[in-house]
Amino acid sequence: MNKLVISIVLLFGAASLSACLDLSSATSKEVNVLGSFPSPTQSYVATSYNTSGGGAPGWCYVQVNVRKLSEQFDSDGGVVFTTRCNVKPDVKWESERKLSISYPADAIVYTQKKVWGKDEPVEISFLPQ
């Protein structure tokens, strides 16, 4: 009987402790899509979105990713542009495989990839304004 009581107390204690800890806060993030921009023949799509998380001090970025239209949106994949949260990039397709991203000249930019994809790459130009 003592072993059963001790097991129950330990199990209850572990459950209570895990309920008090927010183990997901380090990895949880909120994603808000700002706009989706299909290429002229709709083979590709560029999506602008912001991501934020991290609790009180937190973090927030605006990103643009590129993917084939047939693929599901993934906020962690295909990222070609990252900047601070207060910037709204202007995303435009110049042709089926040429994308331009404009943003304020004073913006802090963390990621700028000039090419996305391997087989039929999309070329990306960046225009600080």
Give a concise summary:
With 129 residues, this protein is mainly β.
What do these coordinates show?
This protein has one helix at 2-20, and strands spanning 29-38, 44-53, 59-68, 79-84, 90-95, 98-103, 109-112, 115-116, 122-128. The protein has 129 residues and is mainly beta. It has one domain (29-128). A five-stranded antiparallel sheet has the order 1-2-3-4-7, with no helix packed on it. It has a four-stranded mixed sheet with strand order 5-6-9-8, with no helix packed on it. A hairpin with a 2-residue loop joins β5 and β6. The chain starts with a helix and ends with a strand. 17% of the residues are buried.
Shape summary: globular
Order of helices and strands: HEEEEEEEEE
β-strand amount:
over 45%
> Which segments are poorly predicted (pLDDT under 50) over 5 or more consecutive residues?
7-26
* Integer tally of domains: 1
Amino-to-carboxy terminus distance: 75 Å
Counting DSSP H or I runs of 4 or more residues, the number of helices is 1
Tally of DSSP β-strands: 9
Average pLDDT figure: 84
Which class of secondary structure composition applies to the elements? mainly beta
* Helix proportion range: 10-25%
Q: Tell me the radius of gyration.
A: 22 Å
Question: Major beta sheet, specifics?
Answer: 5 strands, antiparallel
What order do the strands of the largest sheet run in, or round the barrel if closed? 1-2-3-4-7
